[in-house]
Amino acid sequence: MRGIWTTDHIRQAEERLLAGTLEGALMRRAAHGVAIQAAAMLDEHAGAVAGRSAVLLVGAGNNGGDALWAGAFLRKRGVGVAAVLLAPEKAHTQGLAALKRSGGRVLSVEESPQWIASADLVVDGIVGIAARGPLRPDAAALVDHIAAPVLAVDLPSGVEPDTGAVEGPAVSANRTVTFGARKPVHVLNPERCGDVVLVDIGLSGELGEPDLFQLDVADVAAAWPMPGPSDDKYTQGVTGVAAGSATYPGAAVLASGSAVHATSGMVRYAGTSADVVRWHWPEIVATGSITDAGKVQAWVAGPGIGTGREGKDVLAAALGKGVPVCADADAITIIAHQPDVLDARDPGTPLVLTPHDGEFARLTGSPPGPDRVGAVRAAADRFNAVVLLKGHCTIVADPDGRVLVNAARGSWLATAGSGDVLSGLVGALLAAGLDPWLAAGVAADVHARAGQLGADGVPVSAAGVLAAIPDAVRQVRALKP
Ligand SMILES: NC(=O)C1=CN([C@@H]2O[C@H](COP(=O)(O)OP(=O)(O)OC[C@H]3O[C@@H](n4cnc5c(N)ncnc54)[C@H](OP(=O)(O)O)[C@@H]3O)[C@@H](O)[C@H]2O)[C@@H](O)CC1
Ligand SMILES: Nc1ncnc2c1ncn2[C@@H]1O[C@H](COP(=O)(O)OP(=O)(O)O)[C@@H](O)[C@H]1O
Ligand SMILES: [K+]
Fold first, then answer.
1. What is the pLDDT of residues 71-104, one digit of tens each?
2. How far apart are alpha carbons 275 and 246 in whole angstroms?
3. What DSSP state is assigned to residue 90?
4. Which atom of ligand 2 is nearest to the CA of 409?
């Protein structure tokens, strides 16, 4: 698993590291990493390094200092470097001196727009981890002129470092060079960051427990259940699916079909769509009601069950079985409007809630807002449940405080019914006995892969995503280091 640290924790770690390091050494290490990536980008985008031009956007702090030092290094490789100083009196003294010594020039306010517009590369050193609020107007005006590829120093300016939120003009980088550890912005707003390159500045020993996690493909491969020689259909976990209704039989087909594709354990279906489910998935054991469904190791409850009396009874029955439950879609609305349904649950029994933004707002009383991680963490604590917040970037919080983030692989999953597919995956992994937080995270990873593989460059339906689940699992196993 990869760790991600908030800016507070990065700062504390940096302070400890700085205490035992020669002044300026860390910044030069960081800037050297920036210069290497800048040269690589010039080569990629402008066909050469020497003779090409870079403009540095330099803010009031050390982020600007990194850019200035990187400019001095680039001069040694024959790059024409010019700097725009947003706060000339605060610009990093040694960095500015180094740039001037190397033959770099400082632009006047008047000439800046033209230089920015015609540069081969723009290096964004406006603001780093000290950024607060949207870009100030003078910085925002500069960003407007950018036409060239952008290399962001530490993070793209204008994007909130700890939440990835953007409220106003902001830099969109092709690549971001960050130092010591990845910050939340890099996983919560990957589109603005471009490729993220991590430069080692010796910080790892000073970092404590990560604030967020991201699963590596090896984690997903290790967690995904595979049958062993002594397994049979029951030992791998039986998934129960309580979904669908006369109005929404498709939800039943998608959620139960997804569970069928996820693992080789057995799937039981309970509900009024039993006939159509059997027709689509002959391997499923289907009954009309959850009360006479056989034994399962986890339930998926909610997709398409409706939010009336019958839906509530189905959800209460699932919650009362003493096995983990993934409550999705209508189940979330029922919990939001009739929270007493949760009384059916033994608090020790794992519960995974999988809301999209609208369901999240219904459930908690307010939309996730710009701090999505904070909002999901609070909801997990409040409901004593794993909460998976859907969206372009999926966030999964455990009531114990662990949070993982799963990046999208395109926007292919923004299609009706894809959430039903996700709930089937979560349910199957719960039935297989995975830790609920990991089950939700691993399901989100494979769901995103299935979206990408099923789409293969053109829009895909939820049924297409479902059909690509085996390929997604195959991909995970093949990519495992
Ligand atoms: N510490 C280390 O060991 C290492 C640190 N390193 C580097 O240092 C960076 C952190 O540097 P930092 O702390 O100097 O602050 P930084 O992010 O440059 O901000 C500067 C100033 O910008 C302003 N400002 C704030 N918000 C703004 C906005 N929205 N729009 C416009 N301006 C805004 C505000 O100044 P004000 O105008 O309020 O005086 C703020 O003080 C870090 O990201 C990394 O690149 C590396 O060298 C490796 C070693
Ligand atoms: N723009 C997007 N990019 C990537 N994934 C998305 C996007 N929008 C939605 N998704 C994903 O698609 C799924 C949609 O689920 P949901 O909203 O419950 O749909 P439905 O109710 O139609 O099944 C979720 O897994 C969500 O994370
Ligand atoms: K920056």
1. 999 999 999 999 999 999 999 999 999 999 999 9
2. 11
3. G
4. 4
- Decide: 154 and 180 in contact? Cβ < 8 Å: no
Q: Tell me the whole-structure pTM to 2 decimals.
A: 0.96
298-301 and 285-287 beta bridge pairing: unpaired
**Quick one: which atom of ligand 2 is closest to the CA of 421?**
23
- CA of 179 from ligand 3 middle (Å) equals 12
Distance 209 CA to ligand 1 centre (A): 24
**390 near 425, Cβ under 8 Å?**
no
In sequence order, the β-bridge partners of residue 123 are 56, 151
Euclidean distance between the first and the last CA atom of the chain, given in angstroms as a whole number:
13
Annotated binding residue 132: yes
**How buried is 245 (Cβ within 10 angstroms: 0-12 exposed, 13-18 middle, 19+ buried)?**
buried
Q: Which of 418, 420, 452 to mutate to test the pocket of ligand 2 (most atoms within 8 A of CB)?
A: 418
Q: How far apart are CA 68 and CA 85, in angstroms?
A: 10
The one-letter amino acid at 169:
P
CA distance 304 to 288: 15
- 131 annotated ligand-binding residue: yes
Query: Which domains can be identified in the chain, with CATH numbers?
Result: 2-209 (3.40.50.10260), 217-479 (3.40.1190.20)
Summarised one tens digit per residue, pLDDT across range 298-322 is 999 999 999 999 999 999 999 999 9
Read off φ and ψ for residue 387, nearest 5 degrees.
-115, 125
